[in-house]
Here is the input.
Amino acid sequence: MFLTGTMRVNRGGRLEIGGCDAVDLARRFGTPLYVLDEALVRQNCTAYRETLRRLYPRSQVAYAGKAFLNMAMCRLVGQEELALDVASGGEIYTALKAGFAPEKMIFHGNNKTPEEIRQALRAGLGRFVADSISELELLASLAAEERKIAAVVLRVKPGIEAHTHHYIQTGQLDSKFGLGLADGQALAAVCLALDAEYLEFCGLHCHIGSQIFELEPFRLAAAVMMDFIQEIRSKTGVVVRELNLGGGAGIRYLPEDTPFPVQRYLELITATLQEKASEHNLPLPLLLIEPGRSIAGEAGSTLYTAGAIKEIPGIRKIVAVDGGMTDNLRPALYGAKYTVLHAGRVEDRDLEVVTVAGKACESGDVLIRDAKLPSLARGDVLAVLSTGAYNYSMASNYNRFPRPAVVFVRDGHAELVVARESYEDLVRNDLLPELRTAAGGGSDRCGSQKCTA
Ligand SMILES: Cc1ncc(COP(=O)(O)O)c(C=O)c1O
Here is the structure.
């Protein structure tokens, strides 16, 4: 077992997060419920911001909104002086509604639509991260049409891809994101960005993966990018001002996970930039990083209520909860593993092995296989840990489940920041036209007369 942030076991043996009893939270707000430990999110923001500022003053931390975004999170991130990565018109809209400064938004995505680009140009977004030549051309023409200068950063594939404990280094990466170095696309995009009247070429970006536990791929990526900055200067005479190294730091989902300390990661990438800058006699670029998971992930927990309990003799015991793949897609999507606690009896030592399943109509809707939990009864509250990133943001209405509420907890106070969806919300955008059966009959406002409308 492990506890994160402000979590503790209270005198009643129950889980407490942000000074709030988890079983009480479940009763008060219902389940499934996303609970975010606000103090831990702020602590993570501060650790990134302050450490980076100390090591490398010309820097900016941007929170990757795709990990977990709603209006309250935008406000929190703004208060913590972080910039914000947005990856869609919906994320831009949410952030603007929350009063987030547009000039501190960085617009990502591999297929921004013309409408999204116009929306971003009109709102005055700080950076456009162009992912392809085709997108760059679209951006150049829309910026000219709108008579607005778009500040552009180019997303480059540094030829390093890392996930969890593995990384690969290849010359030619088969990834849908970014511009290739080896095939000359990245350099061609630089020239295009420099030539376009309404584009301001600001710098380069790369992102090598997510939930990474090794430091070496980050060092390599930083080095490759600095070498490319040198190549750009030698071929075009232009000195790149800005380098964004993306996100990717791993977090703890299981007790045995060992994420690296943020400080070591920041020391390594800043030292690499400094070494490479002196090797190539380049000025130090402005450095940006974009953590998502490592800001929000461990700060989030999901509370569920246990329902049906099924014993499959000789095989397994299944406890079904009132959520599942609709609020946490990651186990079904890519086999992600999580830790679960009995929120009412955290330290109970009398454990049994159970599988925690969701309630969606999919056999793959299993949250945790072979969890060790005290014996459960219908109505018990379970807490799945480290669900702060890529859970709420990936939630769906499959089976027409309303999406759960989100609360921020801090100092014994719980603040509802996203209301639970209602059944009415589920049908809000549904339309009910008069439909005809194949035989042409059925209810039809035109009655027996032929309808020409
Ligand atoms: C461009 C970019 N930046 C940042 C991130 C955030 O990564 P993480 O949540 O692993 O820190 C992602 C995640 O996919 C990304 O695509």
In short: The CA atoms of residues 166 and 214 lie 8 Å apart.
